[in-house]
C-alpha cells in the first residue's frame, strides 16, 4: 500500500539528530518559552523575511490571536474563502465576528479575487485569505483592494510554508500570517505547533502577550489572554527540519509536474500548473473526479491511499447551521469531486510512476454507461 503520507519516513531522515536534541532538552530542563522557541522564531522570521515571528500552540490559535490582536469582534465582518479547511472560519467565529464567504475561481481552488470587493461593507475589518493546497494567492490585486478600503489582509499560510509571490515568501505578503506546524504540513512538528509572522510591531507585542495569559512581565496582565505557546521541544525539532523545507518543496514540485504531464485520463481533471512554479509548494495534489467514491475504491484496490480535502464546506457543516441558507455552487461541486493523491518528499519515483499508471488505467463504469461518446473513442 502506498500511504497517503508517511510521517515516520519523513522524520526518520533526522532520527539521530532528533534523539540528540531530545537528550539536550532533557538535560537543560527549560521546558516553556525558552531558547529553542526564541531561536526558532528568529530563524523562521528570517526565512519568511518578516521582522517578527511569534510561536504559538497551533495554527487555529495563530489565526484567532491575529484577529484578536487586531481587535476584531462581534459586529465586525471578515471576508474569507468559502472553500477552505474549517479552522479558517472557526478563528473568525471565535472572536464573535461574522465570516463573509467568497467563492473560489472556477479554475483554481483559491478565493476569486474579482468577487471580493462587492462583499466589502463598512463593517469589513479584514480579508482572511488562504493559500489553499500550497498555492500562494495573487496578492498584488488584493493589496490594491485592501489599501483602498483600509482593511487588513491576513494570510492563512498553514498549507504554504515557503511558497512565493514575485520573490516574496508567504507570511510576508499581508499584514500578518498564521502558520501551522501540524505533523502533516510541509513544515511539520512531532505534535501541535503554530506561528504568527508579521512586520507590525504593535501586533507582534500584543500577540506575544496574548499567547501567554496576556502577559509580557510575569504576573502583570495587559489583556485577557490565553495559554497557547509553541512547545520548546517542538521548536527544537522544527529548527532541525526548517533547513530541509526548500528541498522538500522542490521534490513536491517535481512530483506534481510528473502527475500533471503524465496522468492522461478524461475522467480525471488535473490541477492547473501555476505560471510561476515558486508560487506553489504542493501541500496537496488535488484532482477532480466525478464519481469520487468509485475512484477512491479503485485506487485502494490498486494499493494507493487517497484522501478528500474537504468533503463538506464550512458553511454546510452542522456546526454552522446559521449559514445553511447559503448556496455556493462552485464550492459545493468542488467538495463533491476533489480527491488528493499522495505527494510527499519521501515518495520514491517508482511510487509516483505507479500512481500515474494506475490513474491512467482507471475507467469509470458509471460514466461509460452514460457517456457513449467516451466509450466509442476509447
Ligand atoms: C491545518 C490548517 C489550519 C489549522 O492548523 P492547526 O495547527 O491544525 O490548528 C488552519 N488552516 C488551514 C488552511 C489548515 O490547513
From TrEMBL:
Annotated organism of origin: Litchfieldia luteola
Protein's UniProt name: DegT/DnrJ/EryC1/StrS family aminotransferase
InterPro entries (UniProt xref): DegT/StrS_aminotransferase, PyrdxlP-dep_Trfase, PyrdxlP-dep_Trfase_major, PyrdxlP-dep_Trfase_small
Protein family: Belongs to the DegT/DnrJ/EryC1 family.
GO terms of molecular function: transaminase activity
Keywords attached to this entry: Aminotransferase, Pyridoxal phosphate, Transferase
Pfam families on file: DegT_DnrJ_EryC1 (PF01041)
